[in-house]
Design brief:
7 helices; 4-stranded antiparallel β-sheet; alpha+beta; Alpha-Beta Plaits; single chain; 139 residues; 4 strands
């Protein structure tokens, strides 16, 4: 098994809904190490920069408006196969299609308001971690 890092975000709906602590507890219970963590409120421009890969998609404006609508918790998680493991714990993007017991199934309300974000590949994780933690030595 390979030790990896992934970016995780607790989105505005989960922070505003008071479930950040439960999500953090699940991260710890699953054996992830939190390498870096911070709480912030993204500006619209920061959300657009982060989701630039989706700029041509029809949901881009709604997504970036949502992601800049309230506080988020941004983390770098580390574990064996962290990317796939975090995505399994989150569940499918659509909470209605997510497996029982997953974060999105239990706390998400729609494809957009699905509580959490996670990197989908090593290259994406590298970009996303650097976006939120530029120039930071993550040990």
């Amino acid at each position: 098994m390979v030790i990896e890092r992934t970016l995780a975000i607790i989105k505005p709906d989960a922070v505003g809904g008071g479930v950040s602590g439960e999500i953090l507890a699940r991260i710890h219970k699953a054996g992830f190490r939190i390498v870096a963590i911070k709480s912030l409120r993204l500006t619209k421009a920061e959300a657009e920069g982060f989701y630039a890969v989706h700029r041509s998609r029809p949901f881009f404006a709604d997504l970036t408006t949502f992601m800049s609508s309230g506080k988020v918790v941004v983390m770098v998680l580390e574990a064996e196969n962290a990317i796939a493991r975090w995505r399994d714990i989150m569940g499918a993007t659509d909470p209605a299609k997510a497996a029982p017991g997953t974060i999105r199934r239990e706390f998400g309300s729609s494809i957009q308001n699905n509580c959490t974000h996670g990197s989908d590949a090593p290259d994406t994780a590298t970009f996303e971690i650097g976006y939120f933690f530029p120039g930071v030595d993550l040990i």
